[in-house]
């Protein structure tokens, strides 16, 4: 295929870019995955390590992907091309871009299904088929989860298709008129829902115990193994390693201060993730629900909490609405990684590239992920269900290896080109560059071998 140069837009301003990146990095990583990992791994100890990890690897790696993306202002594959320091970059480096796209496909394959689950819960709450107007127990919520999620494949496929359609309607309008404009409305809605839930939860009787569990670190639970585990969560939380930040920063103006935008991105992601915990743990402790129920925390444990709460059904709808908004702001940007690459490396129109991307992922990713819990439950990949296999290989292998390659690419290939693109003071630039070149690869390798 020949590469057709597509006229590229730029973000309207820094706020638009930061809001879009914040939306890309919030998602289920902050609102679903972060809370249940906190509950499973010592509460405040995990939160403390997460904040440290954001500084140790999060912000430096955001800058790595920003530099790679803005340098060429092209898709996540061709970002690893061109020349550096007077030499043509070997085409083999583009493999990193392809790995990132494969990882993006992997996460979308199951991520959209999670969106379908959430829409299912909202539909059930609105229709009354999930009745939280009076207290229910774990038997009720577990039975509902099994019946409506695991054993209702066609309903979940329908809800997933609805979530995919919402993404399509926004994506066809373009990067600025579609993604940027929608995020301007979606992110404030997310913040409003988040604050409403936080205020409701911290004012519940007995909420203080949940806040103590969440914020007071038990340093005896902090181990090197846990810290490495948290470092890996930062990759997921910031959408590192699958081309999102590379793609988004390719639309960034050359005059923009990358250090400021990276710092704001890291801080916003951390703040939203921490706030997400405040809307969960105080209520769990208030009503005596165990915080360590794992991935099903928001789907089985929290409905119990809502059923014991005044106006519980309304707050449950607000909560799951928040999850949908967070998921949407993330899925839009992950799709854009693949769409931009297809559009710029073929002669396909944007609308065709979008339809092809969403359609193919739905058929060979979303549908198998749903059926893997029921009709295809005998089908396993490396001993994992189809859903879990997409999660594992994208999050534990492809993302981490792509991020490792990106750090090496900046440190050993771009060299001075990377420093010039960063455009910061010489002292900070040298510190960041040497850290990325010599320290970050070691940290990523430790994360990788720990995750296998």
TrEMBL record:
Domain of life: Bacteria
Keyword terms of this UniProt record: Membrane, Symport, Transmembrane, Transmembrane helix, Transport
Cited PROSITE patterns: NA_NEUROTRAN_SYMP_1, NA_NEUROTRAN_SYMP_3
Any one Gene Ontology cellular component term annotated for this protein: membrane
Protein's UniProt keywords contain Transmembrane: yes
Topology with respect to the bilayer: Multi-pass membrane protein
Subcellular location(s) per record: Membrane
GO function terms (MF aspect): symporter activity
InterPro entries, sorted: Na/ntran_symport, SNS_sf, YocR/YhdH-like
Segments traversing the membrane: 15-34, 46-64, 95-119, 154-171, 183-202, 222-246, 267-289, 309-332, 353-372, 392-414, 435-451
PANTHER family: TRANSPORTER
Stated family: Belongs to the sodium:neurotransmitter symporter (SNF) (TC 2.A.22) family.
Protein name: Transporter
Phylogenetic classification of the source organism: Bacteria, Pseudomonadati, Pseudomonadota, Gammaproteobacteria, Pasteurellales
